[in-house]
Amino acid sequence: MDRLNFLSFFLLCLTSVASGNKANKHKPWIETEYQGIVMENDNTVLLNPPLFALDKDAPLHYAGEICGFRVHNGPSGSGTVQFEAVVLDRSTGEGLVRSKEPLDCENQREHSFTIQAYDCGEGPDGANSKKSHKATVHVRVNDVNEFSPVFVERRYEASVPEGRLFDRIVRVEALDADCSPQYSQICFYDIITPNVPFAIDNDGNIKNTEPLDSKHQRVHTFWVTAFDCGKNRAQADAQVVVTVKPSCKPGWMGWTKRVEYTPGSGSIPLFPGLHLETCEETVWNIQATVELQTGHIGKGCDRDSYSDRSVRRLCGAVRGEVDLLPPPSPAANWTSALPTLPSSDSSLVFSFNGSNHVAVVPDPVVSALSGDHFTLQLWMRRGGGNIQPATAPTRGNRKEEETIVCSTVRNDDSFSHYSLSVHGCRLSLFYWPDVAAARPVKFLWKLEQVCDSEWHHLSLSVQFPSVTLYVDGVTFDPALIHDNGAIPNPAPRQRMFIGACWEPDEKQKEMQNNTISEVKYVGSYHGLLSGVTVRPGSVEPHSVVECLYACREGLDFGDLETLGSGMKVHVNPSQSVLVLEGDDIESFNRAVQQVTYRNSLRFATPGVRPLKLTTSLRCFNEESCLSLKQLEGYLVVLQPDAPQISLSGVGPHLARPAPEFEGPRGVSLFPELRIVCSLSHAVNTAAQGMEGGALMSDAVAHTLDGCEVQPLGEELNPEREELLVDMDVVRERGLEIINTTAYIAITGAESISVYEDVLRSVRYRLAKGSARFERRFRLSCSEMNGRYTSNELTLEVNFLHSLDNLYHPSHLLASQQQFLHPSHHAGELSGHTLPNPHRNSVVPGAATVIIMVCVGFLVVMVILGVFRIRSIHRRGEGARGGSKDGSGQWDDSALTIIVNPMETYESRMGISADMEGEGEEEEVAESPEDASDDQRIIVKKEGRDGAARRY
């Protein structure tokens, strides 16, 4: 080697002499990349390969020597700060890389930088020095086992059921701060407490070595330590506490079979204390289904307790619908033969038995339904009641379609035909736009809702050729069938059937004057129908359809934001089924406790709603996975506090001169009517230091659905009297009115203020010369189709007649009546000021008054005795003959008015408390005959037959 170096040096010298002794021609040369290692407790970097810089100018002095190395920033940018390179031998170019300060492997394990060599130039001053290329240096800091393991927790706790062996009860964990895998990993754990029935593996999993017994030892406490791979022991040991629970029974804990719901309380949790116990079984999927059964409540759930027409108004539906199944009445008698079933939601449910139960809609009703744009809505339930749904078709026994609506209507000069039918689980609309020219089209839907024997709401909007079907507020697309084979054309005759269709018999088509009894029915429907309406024109918006179907009660989830990770919740459209799914027991238990029942009706339908909870578990070991039985319970909706509808501000007497009633507008009966709805509920006063209980009344905003004004006694005589209503107010509010001689009925769901305005416009008018002396009316209101009714407000109308033209037997008694007894009902008019027909009469002096009273008293006592005898005799004859007072015609030719002057005198002097009690009884008398003869005006009238009548 020395010979080789000498030879190289000799050749370099010869080359230098041959080149004319030119100095420092070449740059130093180093390797392109170096790998280095340095220990945490040392600063010298061991490089591979070693650091040597060569220069071809050697052995020239200065030019062939290496004067230094320079360190430049590497990718980390810290090379110039932490490392330096020094020259160990200038002639050989040997160098050394070292760190300027101690390195920390935990802070930074690897370093990268570049290094460059410089020669000494052409002289001592380093002039014209040359530098090599930059070489990359990678330095790895070797770790020193300077840290000991540290446990993550100082105390570990776990609970296990007794009598079982577990693969893992609890896992302890320790960490080491060293940077290398050799010293940072925990090689093994150890239980340092002797004689405990537990073992620990190298991963920190603790298991029991024998079944634990809670009776023998309830709590086990022991200590655990850890060692890293450098055999350093943990700084502090960890404590482990294992609690042994009694034998575990897997299943739901805290189940309450009965849940009570108070109407008006909003949403309540159904399972506030429910949790699932799996007894440490490893479960990776849990699914629970909560089912609320409300099929027996009205049409499938608790909805608005109003009629279908009122619900349509509340939902903002377009007006103009025609009720095809109205309540039976003289004006709508085509449903009178159909059997009906009771319903808790105040709607009328019609039953069809599939044979002779068919409703034939009259031609005047059908004539209003022309056009190829219409909306058909109905509630349907296959089967129901005592009716069984049609059996499924079998081979060789094909059941025919069941027709719900079959209609042929006139469209200008043509006829269109359609029929809505069900067949198995299929719903079909057969539409024929022109029975004389066009081909029919069949729209078909396959729906489970058609054959599940539950209530469903159907809304069919036809804008031919477009058809939209909503079932329970959800839209479904149809399948079209254009080729229907040989189908006979329907007869071009306008008619509509509900519950069946007429047989397309050619002989019947030729008979132009056939009667309904001759029509043969086909495709009869088995089931229940309610609220069947058709409205021609534009279709209903989707929001209206959803409102018509919307349930006011159902299942809900409390707060979706609290739903844990991995949890899913799903509620069906009718909110009767709620499904929870998750993979974590704790999150699942919290989610189950958030399941709620809500009912937005203020007056919910009381009764029982069955509840079911079905649970499905999936485990890693499917063979030993738990199987939980279905839980059954029930929700009880308590009886709501009944609202009190109070009518006030009227009567009980209304007195006006007779000419006012004979005017063109009559007299308003209820000008100051006030309607107030309130809820009375019990209040616990014991906490307030009071004895007993109390009732508190809260005013609430209600929606009335009907009021009725009824004349008491005989019905109104249309030739002499009538009740008038402001029809503009009624039409503006969309209310309906029935005005007959027996009553006035105003119906429709509206606010109290609207009903007040309408009722205040009710007027009573008489024909000229038809005024009597009194007429009584009764007013009552209700809400929720009569479920809650108001008090009955009775109003007695008195007609004040002028006495100037009446014959009186005694001028003295006439003066007494004017002065002492101007009006029998003057004190009972609740603030009404009665006009005095004798305002210019002269008031007698005090002496005259005393004389009048005395003389009048004697005269009245005699007349009173005679009238009492005649009254008793007349009552006996009236009881035997059953004649009605005041029911015959009367004339004014022999009118005699006899006044008891003592009544007014005694009432003014206030000398008898008993007379006040009798006066109270007089106010609540049902008719004038209930009052005694000496406490009212007695009108004696002789008719043509000479019999005396009293009014």
TrEMBL record:
CDD domains the UniProt entry points to: Cadherin_repeat
GO molecular-function term, one example from the UniProt record: calcium ion binding
Region (Disordered): 911-951
Location relative to the cell: Endoplasmic reticulum membrane; Golgi apparatus membrane; Postsynaptic cell membrane
Cadherin domain mapped to chain residues: 30-151, 152-271
Record Gene3D superfamilies: 2.60.120.200, Cadherins
Acidic residues composition bias: residue spans: 915-932
Presence of keyword Signal: yes
Keywords, in A-Z order: Calcium, Cell adhesion, Cell membrane, Endoplasmic reticulum, Glycoprotein, Golgi apparatus, Membrane, Postsynaptic cell membrane, Repeat, Signal, Synapse, Transmembrane, Transmembrane helix
GO biological process: homophilic cell adhesion via plasma membrane adhesion molecules; positive regulation of synapse assembly; positive regulation of synaptic transmission
Protein's membrane topology: Single-pass type I membrane protein
Protein name as catalogued: Calsyntenin-3
Family, similarity comment: Belongs to the calsyntenin family.
GO CC field: cell surface; endoplasmic reticulum membrane; Golgi membrane; postsynaptic membrane
Signal peptide span: 1-20
Biased composition (Basic and acidic residues): 933-951
SMART domains the record matches: CA (SM00112)
UniProt-listed SUPFAM superfamilies: Cadherin-like, Concanavalin A-like lectins/glucanases
InterPro entries for the chain: Cadherin-like_dom (IPR002126), Cadherin-like_sf (IPR015919), CLSTN_C (IPR045588), ConA-like_dom_sf (IPR013320)
